[in-house]
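$ run holo --ligand "S-adenosylmethionine" --emit C-alpha cells
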Amino acid sequence: MTTTGWRVPAPEIPASKAALPRGELAHFPRIRDEDHPTRWEFPSYLDNPRCRWLQALKELYEMPIVFPASLSPEAGLMLHSLVRNIRPRVIVEVGTFCSVSTHWMAAALHEIGGNGVIHAFDDFGPIHKGPWRDAEMLQGRREWVEDRLARAGLLDRVVFHPGDSPTQLIRAREELSRCGGVQFAFIDGDHTVAGALQDLWAVEPVLNTGGYVMLHDTYPEQCGGHEGPRHILDHLNAVSAGLYEACELYLSPLNYGMGLLRRIG
Ligand SMILES: C[S@@+](CC[C@H](N)C(=O)[O-])C[C@H]1O[C@@H](n2cnc3c(N)ncnc32)[C@H](O)[C@@H]1O
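-- output --
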C-alpha cells in the first residue's frame, strides 16, 4: 500500500527525535523524603473480623519488618483483584519476603475456589535493617512465613522453592509444565538488571501465551535505586523480542511502581 492520496498525512518525525532522560519526563513520579510514609496503614474498610486471611494480613502489616519492601495494602488489593479476575491456576511468585504479596494472591485463589496454587521462590535469607526499616530477621524466615500463612488458612495454596530464584525456576520448569504452565508470574526478587532479567527469562519458557507478568519497584528514584524492573520496561522489545505488551501502574500511598506485562506471542 502506498501513502499517496491519503487525506491525513503522516506526522513529520524530526531526525533528532529521542526519548528524554527519565528526570525530565513529567509523568515520572517523585517522592520527597518528608512525604515518605514510615509504616503501612491497614485501611479500616478491609478490617473484617469474620475474614481469617484479612485479619492475618492486618497483623502482618502491623509488623515493622514488612515496611517498606512489602506491597502496600492498596497495591496488594490490586494484585488480589487481578488474580480474582484472571483466575490463574498456576502462579509463580519470585520474592516472597515476609509473605505479604503471597497472602494477597493466595487469598484470591482461596476465594475463587478450585485448586489454584502459588509456586513461591525466595532465598529466605536474613533481612537486615535498611532505609525506612528499623527491624531485622536474621534467621528462620521460611518457618516464620509458613507459620504466618498457616494462621491465615492459606498455607496449602503455596509450594515453596527455597534458594536462588533463576536456578530454582529452571529446576521447577518440568513440574510447572506438567500443571499446564504459568498464567501469572509476580516478579519481585533480585532487583538488579541481571537479576530481574534472569527471573523473567527463567519463567518465560513456561509462561502461557496470554499469561501475565507483574513487576514491582519500577521507579528506581523512589525505591532505593533498583534498576532491574525499570530496565525491563524500558527495553521490553530488546529483552523479550516483542513477546509482551506492557502497562505501568502507579501505587499508593508509596509509589514504588508496578509494571504489568501480558504475553502475546
Ligand atoms: C522486595 S522483597 C519481596 C517483597 C514481597 N513480594 C512482598 O510484597 O511482600 C525481595 C525478596 O526477594 C528475595 N531475593 C532477592 N534475590 C533473590 C534471589 N536471587 N533468589 C531468591 N530470592 C531472592 C529477597 O530475599 C526478598 O525476600
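-- notes --
The first helix runs from residue 52 to 61.
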